[in-house]
Amino acid sequence: MSSTRDIDNLIEMMAKLPGLGPRSARRAVLHLIRKRALLLTPLSDLMQTVAATARECLNCGNVGTEDVCDICTSEKRANGELCVVEDVADLWAMERSGVFKGRYHVLGGTLSALDAIGPQELRIPRLIDRVATEAISEVILALNATIDGQTTAHYIADQLDGQVTLTSLAQGVPIGGELDYLDDGTITAAMRARKSL
Amino acid sequence: MSSTRDIDNLIEMMAKLPGLGPRSARRAVLHLIRKRALLLTPLSDLMQTVAATARECLNCGNVGTEDVCDICTSEKRANGELCVVEDVADLWAMERSGVFKGRYHVLGGTLSALDAIGPQELRIPRLIDRVATEAISEVILALNATIDGQTTAHYIADQLDGQVTLTSLAQGVPIGGELDYLDDGTITAAMRARKSL
């Protein structure tokens, strides 16, 4: 490589980001260098700001710039519904859909015997605490439809059994989905949960 | 979005990088925030350094941290061969292959009537200048095998005709390539340039 060490290091570090590899990192860095006044300097400044201000909400685990996030402080969202998600990305996905008006609880992962992740490693004790102390009427388990996600949902359901209404996301054919391309599990779930028209 | 403005802005800016879209930018930013001490702060610092030090070589157009790049100052590379490429990324690709021991000239694009890019917008006058003043025996036109790339190669060949030996990269079957997957143009080129064993 003819580029000097800082540029090489920058490429190497960018290549570690999810979604980028060595090739796309090189392209991104060249793009940044070409537009350094317009893009590289502002991006660096913004990263500095975010590095200094970003934190996890002490209550729900969402990422924001306050100790307690906007959703947890908003009175409008205190409707008694609590949506449990694995990850902040899932919370953001729910928010983009705009369908949910309650509050969230981010677990920070799923239970995994293989990776030695037990309830204490996740935000599960805090969830049990919130259900006991906040005015929560329904806990919606919006965990991923993976084995780990469903195991975690079952564990939480066991812990909260009898204290609160428990629901989970419906499973079935995704909007725009073609039967031909769906796996057997999805078709089975959609068939079992069929609705009368 | 529940994340606050700086985080949103960072996602938006990251999404503008080549190879990243809104979804992968969100994933990357969450990853960066999770590892802010290990990744976000060092990345920001490095960007600041690169923004301050990166510049184009005044001689060849390569990106580095000096006014004249390592390759242009290295005496070892003054072997009379000059490799003309469209872009710094192409120069880096050539360097990774390690096959070329001479110097480079980065045009900064290709001629394009549609986009009103003429020789003056590229580093073509500087190329003609270098051929006239440096001890160059061969100019290798390593431009992309696209229409714009080949048009530019023809233009440069016209300008330098008679002053220096002009060559271009061989065209043919790429290493590991399967005939079945190659386009007609490549097969035609490979057939025309066939070699005796």
Describe the structure.
The structure is a homodimer of 197-residue chains. Chain A is an alpha/beta fold and 197 residues long. Chain A folds into 2 domains: 5-53, Orthogonal Bundle (Helicase, Ruva Protein, domain 3); 63-168, Dna Topoisomerase Vi A Subunit, Chain: A, domain 2. Helix content of chain A is 45%, strand content 11%. Chain A has helices at residues 5-14, 22-34, 36-53, 70-73, 88-97, 124-133, 147-160, 184-192, and strands at residues 55-56, 63-64, 81-85, 103-106, 138-141, 165-168. In chain A, the strands form 2 sheets. Chain A has a 4-stranded parallel sheet with strand order 4-3-5-6. In chain A, strand 1 (55-56) and strand 2 (63-64) form a beta hairpin. In chain A, helix 1 (5-14) crosses helix 2. The radius of gyration of chain A is 21 Å and the shape is globular. The termini of chain A are far apart. The mean pLDDT of chain A is 90. The interface between A and B is large, with 55 and 55 residues. Chains A, B: Keywords: DNA damage, DNA recombination, DNA repair, Metal-binding, Zinc, Zinc-finger. Chains A, B: It holds the Pfam family RecR_C. Chains A, B: A zinc finger (C4-type) spans 57-72. Chains A, B: GO terms for molecular function: DNA binding; zinc ion binding. Chains A, B: Belongs to the RecR family.
